[in-house]
Amino acid sequence: MPDPTDREVLLTGAAGFVGSRLWPALDAEGLRVRCVTRDAERAAHRWPERDWVQADLAAPAGRVRALAGCRVAYYLVHGLAERQQDFRSHEVALARAFSDAAARQGIERIVYLGGVSPQGPPSEHLRSRLEVGEALRAGPVPVVELRAGMIVGAGSTSWLIVRDLAARLPAMVLPRWMQTRSQPVAIDDVVVALVRAGRVPLEASAWYDLPGPEILTGREILERAAEALGLRRPLILAVPCLSPALSSHWIRLVTRANWSVARELVLGLAHDLLARDDFYWRLIEHERRLTFREAARRALAEEQAEGRMGGFARALEAAVGRIARADHGAPVSRPGTTGLRSIQDITLPMDATAFEHWGQPGTLRHLLDAYFRVAELSSGGLMRVRWAGDAPTIALRWLPLPLIIMGAPTIACESVRRAIHVPVRGGLVAAHRGSARLSIVLARHGTDVRLSVELIGYQPWAAHIWPVPWISWLQTQLHAYVGRRFVRRVARAWRRAS
User: Fold this and answer.
1) Beta bridge partners of 175
2) Judging by beta carbons within 10 Å of its beta carbon (0-12, 13-18, 19+), is residue 145 exposed, middle or buried?
3) 387: exposed, middle or buried (C-beta count within 10 Å: 0-12, 13-18, 19+)?
4) What fold does the segment set 331-497 form as a domain?
5) Which end of the chain has the smaller Cβ count within 10 Å, N or C?
6) Running along the chain, 498 residues long, what does each successive block of 10 average in pLDDT?
7) Domain 8-306 has CATH 3.30.2010.30
């Protein structure tokens, strides 16, 4: 067989949700990847390590520029957000032109990511996805068509709609069509499927479904999204009169998704979206897939790490979180005789080997040092951390006034939990409490690790004398701000290292 690295792989849609995640996996396979976009300058600014080619695939010259010298082409083009008058006809015509151009340039295989065929009349969006697949498979170049339903991952429009509904509506009316079933699949699993589609045995064009491991109704998806957000299940009232078309208008008011795209996606939910089978996962020997809960936790962790939401949206969700008596990106605070409890956390995909490395005493100590550096930066230069041996003290930068005096850290190592604890001894703003402590904890849950920074049993000094609620609230908010910055910074460092 020819060396798979002797010619480039073409990646269309390389700046999109799926394409941007597919590049690292193709690169890890040792493949030379040519990324195509209509704005190469902007894409190169965000991903400077990738090879970008500017080309408009709707133009013959653009197709030649993109395809020349490649062996395999990933077709991830989708014009739904461009508001074409007849986007379905446009998509099909573009697919046929791409296939013909690929044949002239000697492309050996096209890999296409489409949509699942519904068990009923398809919406315009789904009909377009299916007809594009048919057009490509009817062309002169062999095609592997992979059909996915809802893809769960930060940046997916389908996931964004579900996530925002769960985070922002503690109570909602549920149309009858939300009882339709689907099989959501994690973006991590989709990437594996796409990479292996480039080398799976192929005698002639074929299509395969990419189902997730669970069959869920729309209601179950919303409930599990709320659970991943740390919220109670939303109060849901089922009503029969809301059609998908009507529902798309109130979804427009709640979510951050592009409305024209969201509307088409919602219209596609009128019928079950169930796979014919899961044969492809067996064919590529990837039967263990992420559950919806696992995929949702990863999507939320990535969103937190990248700070995708604006201030107003974050404030809105914090208010809903208080109504729902749960936490999402805000401190969990319980003032009283046991002191305050504030926890900020993030979930990272981490295998056993990485967990053992990150859970070593030396690494935990580095994490603690990093936390205090973030605290200094977050104070705007007003505070610094002074060390007396292993014991830190948070003080004013210009005056030797000990705001919070802490003891030497201790480390606890268990099989699935590693932690470093620093006791709070007192200070000008902290009351002495024997049980108060700051902790950084790594807790393993299956293929993920939850990193948290926790302030437990803390009591502000002024509140100890005179229980002024705002003093407790202010100090908890400050810790929550530092904690959020810290876990996001660690998550970014982890993603760069992995």
Assistant:
1) 239
2) buried
3) exposed
4) Alpha-D-Glucose-1,6-Bisphosphate; Chain A, domain 4 (3.30.530)
5) N
6) 62 94 93 93 93 93 94 87 68 95 96 92 87 96 96 90 80 69 95 95 94 92 86 67 57 66 66 91 94 92 71 57 44 47 85 87 91 89 86 83 86 90 84 78 88 84 51 74 89 80
7) no
Q: Residue 371 is which amino acid? A: Y
The kind and range of the H/E element at 28 are helix 17-28
Strand partners, 238: 174
* Number of Cβ atoms within 10 Å of the Cβ of 316: 16
The length of the chain in residues reads: 498
Map tokens 């005698």 to a residue. 203
Amino acid at 217: T
Does residue 438 contact residue 424 with C-beta atoms inside 8 Å?
Answer: yes
Helix (H) or strand (E) holding 387: strand 383-388
Strands 8-11 and 33-37, how do they pair?
Answer: parallel
8 vs 129: CA distance, rounded Å = 26
Q: For the chain, what are the domain ranges? A: 8-306, 331-497
Q: Are 38 and 76 in contact (CB under 8 A)?
A: no
